[in-house]
Design a protein that fits this description.
about 240 residues; mainly alpha; two-stranded antiparallel ribbon; 4 strands; about 5% strand
Length: about 240
Amino acid sequence: MRAISKLGDGGFHLKKSHANPPQTHGAATSRWKSFGHKPEVMELLLSEQYRLCCYSELRSDQQGLSYHIEHVENKGQQPHRTFDYTNLAASALASDSDLPALKALGAEVFGGHAPGKRQSVDMQRFVSCHQADCSRFFAYLSDGRVVPAHGLETTDQERAQYTIDLLNLNSSYLVPLRRKWWAELEVLFDEHITSDMSLHCLAGVDLLPRNQTLNPFFSLTRQFFGRIAEDVIRQEAPELL
């Protein structure tokens, strides 16, 4: 999970709605359903997230999928934050099209639509994508799984596992994609070593933004390249640190 830096306030219409926020779950659901400026808000979210899903770092557009506007703190728990831009993020999977498509494939739903996230969330345990240090909680394995990072204190390890389970980040859809991505990185890494080519240039291909977009699984790639990745990001895109 990559930390998201919020930019702006979501635009005039969202800000206006937030000035008189809903106070009940029912009002939040009704008003959000009728809010007619979601495409504008979505574009702002995707821009600040470099087109990555806020939880899985999937590039939904590259997989023939879409996104939905996610309330990091659920509307049912915090209705007054329904139009709070600092509570919004772009998460993979659109309700009307992608959920039926995944079901047809026999794949598990993940991210903001995961069954756990749709229920009550313990925000004291949940690791939010808006938390500046959220990336330190997770590690990525060559078999495609995401796990709590090594060396975490017990409380933080439990928070990481709670978040992984809640968002179903090891879903049957995501794990094979991560495993394939890791394998491709390994092949390219070995080729560059054999041919004495620059690993810094290789890392930059998958870590540096192009046209305000990043390649999928940024955190996995950053972990894979280790200190090389940190050097590249620090020198070429310090805004990603």
